[in-house]
Amino acid sequence: MYAIIATGGKQYKVSEGDLIDIEKIDAEDGSTVTFDNVIAVGGDELKVGDDVKDASVKATVMMQGKGRKVVVYRYKRKSGYHKKNGHRQLFTRVRIDSIQ
Question: Which residues does 19 contact at the CB level (< 8 Å), separation at least 6?
Answer without folding.
Answer: 62, 93, 94, 95, 96
